[in-house]
Fold these 3 entries.
Entry 1:
Amino acid sequence: MFTRQKIVLISLISILILLFAEGSRSLMIELSTEELTRDSEIVVVGEVGDVMSFWSEDGTTIFTKAKVMVDQVVKGIHHTEVDIEYKGGEVGEIGLRVSDAPSLEKGEKVILFLKTKKIEKGVKVFNIVGNAQGKYTVREDGIAIKGGFSVVRDTEDVIDDYIPVEDLLNKIRSVK
Amino acid sequence: MNKKTTCLIFSLVTLFVLILSPFSEAFVVNRTPTGATIKWFTNNTTYYINTSGGPAGSLSAIQNAMQTWTNAPANFSFIYGGTTTSTAYGTLDYYNMIGFGSLPVGTVGENSRWYYVNTGQLLDCDIRLNTYYSWATDGSANSFDVESVALHELGHSLSLGNVDSPADAAMYRYISKGQIKRSLHQDDIDGIVFIYGPGTSPVYRFWSDNFKHHFYTMNEAEKNHLICCDSNWRYEGIACYAWPTQASGTSPVYRFWSDVFKGHFYTMNEAEKNYLICCDSNWRYEGIAYYAWPTQASGTSPVYRFWSDVFKGHFYTMNEAEKNYLICCDPNWRYEGIAWYAVK
């Protein structure tokens, strides 16, 4: 008797969870994993190391540079670490935020879609493809969560904004 | 299922809905790492518009987007400073500009905000719409709508962040070609009111022992004149805060004067106003006193209306204790209901 009641209770709560989850995600329209992969030179899984913001040489803007220790290269040639640069950050008393820019925090586990921005002293410095959309944050439970802001697609496509890491990596590897 | 279990299930489901509901519609405010709200420290900021690279009608489309935020019932306005040829997007030059230009694929519009790290004070906010995509101002299905995207990006200039829901909010993080979203959702309004406060002015309250009537005005000159020079009226303080000009969602409160009753009357009811103007010679229409909400909006409270057969006049109050006292204990006054909603 009580088991049946528990089943009803669990079912009701599950339905509710599914309803909420669908409601918050079903209208999202983003760059697809295929597009991000095709536009990337390398795709890596890694952990964010030191992060440092600085003024541009001409003093007009602030950039942030982050070092990422690579655990796995999913696409592209082997790297043990990569340098990434994006617009925005805080230096002294001045801060700059750019609405579509990614943001990396030291210690964060990430999957990044990258393209060469420049070569500095013989070392490649990468951009994140698709701005914040090209960054997945990897949670401890093995789920990858996509970044992303006011971005667009012509059609409502399959979205991978909340996906088990292995599923995402398999999707990336399958892109020809 | 027995009664106890049904009750338990119902309680759990209700609790779950209550826990989740605040997150289903919630504006996002940008903050510094120390927790300070990033915002303008003034109640307005000026934008210059460069329409080069945009479609015909871009200037008025962007101005409309600015006006939509300005019309929100918050203490903040965007000011149109004129057109510009500047393309200095994203540089700290203390010159806010909106223009068209190149951005990475996938980004339809972008906002660069400069601020003081310690205080959160905004210094400069530039907006760029990506010329990689096609733009229109006529709702064309194959282009992005300038006004809709400008509205979203201007929301960032106010320090509002992107939201995952509601999908019809201006600050919803995604937009499609042909999609028109030129008005604010209540969630957007709640956001700007949260950051900048309600855009209201005080309504002053007077009492006349001679006329046995209250008088309410937002007009500073009128208030000052009565205080200094008209012994018929005694100043009682601020009755409420309301809008001196029409903000989105507000309606006019009309003011009448009666030489017969020696008192003023205020109403938001159009039919009542029209009847008094056309058919009741006791009342003379004096114009719009101020603007208020006909239904309850975020941050507003009811203004209660009373009528006195003894004094032949109306009385309005937001004070709950005063209202309750009149209802319970003062036979001179008859409660007529909620007149409108204003800010305490």
Entry 2:
Amino acid sequence: MGCKGPVTYNACSVVRWNDGTSYPIQSGHGCIGCSEEGFWDNGPLYQHRSQFPGFGIESTADTIGTAVGLTTIAGVAAHAVVTNIRKHKVIAEVHAEEQKES
Amino acid sequence: MARIVVDPVTRIEGHLRVEAVVENGVITDAFSAGTMVRGLEKILVGRDPRDAWAITERVCGVCTTVHALASVRSVEDALGISVPPTAELIRNIMLTTQYVQDHVVHFYHLHALDWVDIVNALKADPKKAAELASSFSKWDKNTAAYFSAVQDKIKAFAASGLGIFANGYWGHPAYTLPPEVNLIGVAHYLDALEWQKEVVKIHAVFGGKNPHPNYLVGGVPCSIDVDEVAAINSERLNLVARLISQADEFVNQVYIPDLLAVASFYKDWSKYGGGLKNHLSYGEFPTKGYGQIDGFKYARGARCWGAT
């Protein structure tokens, strides 16, 4: 995650520029995402970013947050189901082995 | 009649082609052309004028900053904006930094090796080089030990094939500097490389980074408060002051003495070319706003010496 949230990826705030002297946010200017591919066409520099490339045209930060949240919940649920199925299989195998032994 | 084509012309950033018509050893006509279309005027059409500086600035990474400044000034002129006095001072500090750094980089790294023979510096006596350098400058590195260490470095470099300098005209009779001056030149070429990356930290303080520091239509993006950790505070301003005094020392004890020393061995070259007959300057470093040309520290004007 870079200075401009999920649309920039550089580590400017950690590494900083010119032997660690500063970086755009520290000097007071907003991030213009200059290390991103085709940054000059990623929208006006001085407008609030309510739409991110890669997401839906009308997406706002809130709906993206909700979407990410829902995906996470879905992921947790799917993980639980898969784990359950895998465990069922292991339990069945252990049962079968026990029955063979007895 | 011969027509000589030099393409690309190096020693500059960008792409330049020059053709010269030679008759009996005299150039009778010449043509020059910039051969790479940048198209910035086209790129800017339809964009937010506040964004123009960021795109315009990227025309060149050596003379970074100046195009951004020209861009914000144009937008401010169109919109009738005058910037606050503090912003004007900060912009002047940033521009002066570039102005000084660019002169040094241009002299040492773009064309010094047209005058300074790296390989010939191996023949120099480091002690004599130190004595000579001390005679025209008070730089604290003017010692035999220092020049000897630089010579060792060049020796190892030459033994490895001279890297990117392998195809230079080393040993060409047009090089007229004595070995000691060549050694001083190469030593300061390396020192200048170190120094130029230090001085541009001034751009990082006020503009976040170099190359391509940030500008802003209407002023500057940074705020100043000597006690505030997140602003341009006393620590930041002390860093800028230190870098300015280092720049002052480097220019006055290294760059200008070297320039004069090298020039004194190439006086013949002053006969070449048409010379400076006309000079036009837009002036620079405003003190009362960019619209008030009487407040410029460098005056605006045109001058003609012997019109042709």
Entry 3:
Amino acid sequence: MEPSDLELVQRCQSGDMTAFEELVSRYHQKVYLVIVGLLRNRDDALEVAQETFLRAYRKIGSFQGGSSFYTWLYRIAVNIAIDSRRRQKRSPLDFRESMDGVLEEQDEVAKDPFADVHDKELREKLIAAINDLTPEHKAVIVLRTIEGLSYKDIGEILGCSEGTVMSRLHYARKKLQDKLRAFL
Amino acid sequence: MKHCDDIREFLGAWLDGELDPSEAEAVRLHVADCPACAEERRQLEKLQVAMKSVFSTEGERIAFEPFWHGVRSRIERNRPWHAELIEWLRSALEAPRLVWAVPAMIVVLIVALSLNSIWPSLKWWGQRNNYVAVESIDAHGRNVALLREDDTKTTVIWLYQNPEGENDTSEEPAQSGPTF
């Protein structure tokens, strides 16, 4: 039977590196996807994802199990990503270019990677609109859309109430909808 | 929740399945009867699908082994003590309740230094005291020199003045300075 996250954490706290390796194996992809969603740049996302697990390793001794391991881990990831984003302050053009690179590669491996988003213009406008969101609004959109996390979990990760999560999601979607109304 | 604006505020949460059953039912009934809100719902659903497509472009792309190797090498890399200190300070000061502390401390420090440079004689609470030491008494017991502990100046008190002034015939002339 597969050990639970908490069991692995407890083994980590006893100095078991293989337990930490198992945790990284479970969550590296999800953490990476969330960070890519926030940063829109794969190289930066990889860097931040590895830094996230480094910080988690260093702080795992203080993990009490009051929240689930993945919300604790995502909280670290989101904080580093938002901090990194603020420090870099890349221009929207940089984001679009880096994301275009991602999209082109995706085109190479799949015939119609945007089967649900037929309009290329909608895709481009959506990426630009997402980039224009504030870090807080982008974070709720990413955590909800990519991970499908509950408002409660998102609130735990971002350190705010469920009501705040609902409000931020509403306004973030409204902003996106207003900018893309002609394409929806 | 009867007005369209109220309903639309909860549309996203309703689609996310995050409303109470009674609230969800109210939204569902309204949307079923309101073409404008039904259109809002359609747009929101399309937006959601579009976002999922955009966010999923990275897919299953990073291999575990090189990723773990990178994490492990970071863990094993010895970090200098000042990097640890900076990280600790950053995490300590990032707490929302401490956000105000740094600028507040800087302002207090600047004000304190400014006051001290403008009025060097200004003393802080508790610094000034009233301790005085008798430094010396002249040979005739006329003059007493007092030295304040927190001051470099010596205060001379003339205890006795010769009523005959200049005609004083004593061995110690009145106009001569005290001898210590």
